[in-house]
Amino acid sequence: MIRSIVHVAAFAAALIYSIQTASAENRVALVIGQSAYRSVPALPNPANDAKMMTDLLTSAGFEVTAVPDASQTEMRRAIAEFIDKLNNKGPDTVALLYYAGHGLQVDGENFLLPVDVSVLHETDVPLQGVRLNDLLNSLALIPSKTRIVMLDACRDNPFPELEKSIGHGLALVETKAGAAGSFISFSTSPGAVAEDGAGVDSPYTTALLAAAHQPGLTIEEALKRVRVSVNQATDGRQTPWDSSSLTTDFYFFPGSAGGHAGQASGARTSQGWQRELKTLQPKAAYERVIGEDTVEAYEAFLVVFADSPFGTRVRDLLVRRQEMTAWATAVAINTPDGYAAFLATYPGSDLAPTARKLQERARNRPQIAALGQAAIPIALPSAGSGGNANAATLATAAPTCPCAPTPAPLTIPPLKRTDVTPNPAETTPALPKHVDIPVVPPKRVDVSPPPQIIVTPPPKHVDIPPPVITHVDPPKVIVDRQPPPVIIQRPPPVTVQHPSPVFVQHAPPATTRPSGGDSLGAALMIGGLIAGGLAFGHHGGGNMGGGTMMHPPGRY
Question: How far is CA 95 from the centre of its chain?
Fold first, then answer.
């Protein structure tokens, strides 16, 4: 009874202290729980997990936004509003995002799946999912004190048709290569699958709720307890994993009951771990290395407890961790040689189909920086040693394009300064050599101007507008009356008896003319008669003027 009272009092004090701490810093959280998937079987626990996490974070002083069963549009909108809220809160802000639901990796990148996803091919995942790296990059761009991402998103692949083309679980993500002040936690190891659990909550969220409520535990120490608890609950099938670049301690509920997470132990060598593990029993040593979850700790356990019943679990964890580290390195370098090195080391990996596909894609990509890529050393961890433990840091600044990922920038260590006496022959500049340049006579160049060609342009057509008539006088009517036609009647033939006088049978009838033509008609008639008489007298008959001279009948 007394112990219960003390526990309640301690929890109440921690709660009051957390409220005071929350007043000194802004705490903002986004919780997404995906249970009601439409095209695949529903997940029973994420809805419960999200509700329990909402209650936990609210009691820890967070301003929580809960988004259950979100479609892709709703997820993107909720994340955008979450980023805007962080931006308005200021730099002294703790941001936390919790996601429970399905997640997949495609081409070395992780995607969170909304409830309206309908995947037939692996190319559908980047189009219908939400890229984890986009979320992490958006959070890193906002000035904030601490950024925490917790993902219970490694359930069994709900799309069996994709099993042969994509890898198991999620790809490794390291925060140490990104912005400082970040912490990311996965419900299981990279490349492994998490269980949904038989209870109302998943094993990961169940252990997280229990550890986070402990006052005075840093988030690193709380997640070490979560790792051990989940490993025990699943008989070693599931081991949560996290990565931290925090520069300050974060407590869900501050207090003095807990301690720091043994931060120095993570930097120990394999030999240092061997000395510590030799003082422990196999089960205690197993829980110790599981809590630390480092390659050096696993290697030391296999040396000290090679015949232990826990040896197989540790060996499987170590081999898979080395493989996922090598895979993250190959994806970050993104060259044909990098993928070839991964395939040579892990030819039977479930990631081999993806490696071959990305190798071919990198080979067909224009090699703009081929010289720089060729100079990149490729160091993949071997199956029998710790390998390059820092190689995975290349994967944090992961690409955001599934078709042609861009290699992350590589950190080149600065050159060490060495005291070396310079060689005078190397430091003294050499005198320029005298070179005889033959004089070449200039060639004759015809600089006369080219003949001018005069081109006469064709005449331009100019449209002349018609004149504008402003006033028109009425036309005058002029009647031009033509003179009537002149009718001339030839005289009938005249019978003349020689030497008798000329008898005119009858005079031509008077010509009737209109007024104004009498004088001209008379003149013509008289002239004709005179001409006929003269002709007759001269020739003694015959034709005259084309006429026929005949004797009148009865007068011969």
Answer: 28
Distance between CA 410 and CA 389 in Å, rounded? 15
pLDDT in tens, 306-344: 889 999 999 999 999 999 999 999 999 999 999 999 999
Distance of CA 348 to the CA centre of its chain: 34
Is-contact 149 97, C-beta < 8 A?
A: yes
Cα–Cα distance, 304 to 283 (Å, whole number): 12
- Distance between CA atoms of residues 216 and 18, nearest Å: 10
User: If residue 226 lies in a helix (H) or strand (E), which one and from where to where?
Assistant: helix 219-233
pLDDT for position 268:
83
Upstream peptide bond of 353 is cis (omega within 30 degrees of 0): no
What is the tens place of the pLDDT at every residue in 138-182?
Answer: 999 988 999 999 999 877 778 877 777 788 889 999 887 667 899
Q: Convert 409-467 into a string of H (helix), E (strand) and C (coil).
A: CCCCCCCCCCCCCCCHHHHCCCCCCCCCCCCCCCCCCCCCCCCCCCCCCCCCCCCCCCC
Classify 83 as helix, strand or coil: helix
Beta carbons within 8 Å of 510's beta carbon, 6+ residues apart: none
Q: Is the pLDDT of residue 413 over 50?
A: no
| 103-106 sheet: strands from edge to edge | 103-106, 109-112, 130-131
> Do residues 117 and 129 make contact, with C-beta atoms less than 8 angstroms apart?
yes
Structural domains in the chain plus CATH codes: 14-261 (3.40.50.1460), 318-395 (no CATH), 493-556 (no CATH)
State pLDDT tens for residues 498-539: 444 444 444 444 444 444 445 455 555 665 655 555 444 444
Q: Bridge partners of 547?
A: 544
Angle between helices 295-304 and 311-333 (to 10 degrees): 150
| Interior angle at CA 375, CA 373 and CA 376, nearest 5 | 70
43 class by beta-carbon count within 10 Å (0-12 exposed, 13-18 middle, 19+ buried):
buried
**Nearest 10 degrees: Cα torsion 55, 59, 65, 68:** -10
CA dihedral 239, 245, 250, 256 (to 10 degrees): 80
Helix axes 270-277, 282-292, angle to 10 degrees: 150
Residue 300 CB partners (closer than 8 Å, separation 6+): 270, 271, 272, 273, 274, 277, 289
